Each structure stands twice: as structure tokens, then as C-alpha cells.
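Hi C.,

You asked whether I'd gotten around to modeling the 376-residue construct. I have! Everything is below, sequence then structure, no commentary in between.
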Amino acid sequence: MHDVVRRKHHPLMRCMPGLPALGRAGRSTARKTLGTVAVRLAAAAVLALVSVAPAWAVDDAVPGLTMPRLPPGALPYHLDVGGLDGTLGRGELGTDALTTRRVAQTSGAPAPAGGTAAEPEEPEDSVSELNRKLTNPVSSLWSITNQFNNFKLANGRWNNNWNFQPVLPVSLTRDVNLITRPVMPFYNIVPHETAPGQFERTAGLGDLVLLELLSPAHSGHWVLGAGPTFIFPTATSTFTGQGKVQVGPSVVAGYLTKEFFLGVFPQQWFSISGSPARPDTSQLNLQPIAALFFGDGWNIGYSGNILANWKASSGDVWTVPVGVGVGKVVKLGRLPVKFQLSLQYMPVHPQDAQEWDVQVQITPVLPKLIKGTLFQ
């Protein structure tokens, strides 16, 4: 049965309709020929990957420290510089979250006549330096944060989600970087009341958040960035998304040293289109950033995003968390990975909204796929 299905849907059956009619010898010859072609194609693919694979994500040194990095956040989940959150969006220290950090860089200066320019090898960053870069919302590192939030609601129920948050920086010129930070809620499990005292849990995809930040490449200890932020109605349930296309401004400003990082990262969204059956939105996700760095890749800092739903009634506008997070960067072979555990309590929150959050983040650093600058 399975063999019949495989043959029926094999791609060669569509482009070589005569193949099933071949005799046994013909089919044997065809299989040998196809096997040889497949091996050669696989070898060519491996050689191509080896030829373009870059060194593990390490950055060109910038005086003082690194370039910057970013995040997004929105209502029915928790983002972080991280994060979106249940009633609006909540976030946390820049190990990621609201969004995407990668730096795409293509080669810049032309090769000298008679040969190809050899790119000097960069020294590998220590785990402490990688930790500082991962905490920076506009860093030049490529990374992917997997953020798992476990919210305990004021009514005693639990809301769980997983936010997949790449960070994709690109060097547009020698002086300006573009940081793309999408936040993709791969699942959002939301409890909702079906009858007095009775609840059901609905699971589905959440709304996609996309942040685009322009940031100066050489700003010393200052971390600066600004750009548009978007929310797209990709949720698979009315309980896991807002059903509106939203757009607004975002800014990041901070001061980063080897010992600490202080900054602020607000994002504001306004609904501009979407389902007419869903209410219009106007919401703020403001992420305070405060972190202390220690040796061997350790850090401790504030965790949480301040949320405001400007369309809510007066008593349900604000969500204000008080939280702490502890993180560490380790190297698994050549792959740097940051692990962070955070606990947040929301003394100010809307009725029946999140009151506690236990958050786990796992952030592998990716190799740079493009080096240099896109434009001269």
C-alpha cells in the first residue's frame, strides 16, 4: 500500500509518464541512472553549502561594543525583546523576543586584480561578549529565540504560548543596519468561559508581529534604532488573535557597557484594516531593559513588558509587571546558545488577565549567511 502511494506521488511519475511501463531491465537501468544523478546532485549541494557557509555568528568589532538588535509584542500572547502577551504583549530582556535579529552582509570592496580578496578571520567572541550582544535589541548577531510563556490568570486558569522570534540584521551600508524581527506565535493556548464556571482551552496560531528597525552601526555605547512595526491577523482562532492589520512606530534607546545595559523599547500599534466584526485596536508595548552582566556568560535583569490597551475601559488599560530573569550563554560544541529563566508578577492588570508568568527562553546564535554591506 505504502509503495503504491509513494509511486503514485513520486515527482518522477509526473515528469516521466512512461516510467511505470518499462520492463524489469529498463526499470533497473533507470533506477541506477537516477541513483547516480541523485548522488551527484547531493554532492554538488554539499560542496555549494560548504563553499558559502560562514563562520559561526561573530561580529565585526565596534568601538565600545556591538551594533543593535530588536523585538515586537501584541495582545493575545507575550512578545519579548522579546515578547507578546496575553492581554496585550509582554516582553523581556533582549535575548529575544518581540522579533528578529539577524545581520545579512554581502561583500563590499572589489577584489584586487588577479585574485579574490581573502576575508580576514575574525576572533571568536567569548560567551560574556555574546551575552551582551544577545541582550542588545539591535545587535548584529543572527539568532532565534524560542520563548515559552506560562501565564497564570487572575481567575486561576493558565494561558500558554510559544513565540518563535528570529533576529535578522543586515548591513545596508557601513553606517546603517536594518534589523528585521518577526515574532511568530506557533501556538497560543487560551482558556475561555463557555458557561458560568466552565472553561475550554482553545489552541491555535497567533497574530504575526513584524518589526523593521534602522540603526546606526557606529554609535559607541549608545544603542539606537527606529522604524515601523506591524501586526498581521494570522491567528487561526478568534481567541488567539485580534483579527486586525495594525501598524505603528517603534523606537529603541539605551546605553550598553561591559557591566550593564539600560534602555527602553516602546512599540505602538493602531488598527488600519481587518475583520469588520472585530473591534478596532490601539495598544502599546513598552519594554524597559535593565541588565547586569557577570563573568562566564551570566546576566540578571528586569523581565517584563508594560502594556496599555487604549481602547479598554479605564480600569483595564494597564498591565504592569515586576519580574526578574537570569540567563547564561553556553557553547554546545561550536554553537552558542543562551538559556534564560524569568518570573514575572503583574500587580496591575485587567480583570481576569495575566497575573503570573513563568518564562523560559532558548536562543541559539546562527551563522552569518551574508557578510559585508549591501550597498556601498
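If it helps when you're writing up: The CA atoms of residues 165 and 201 lie 24 Å apart.

Thanks,
B.
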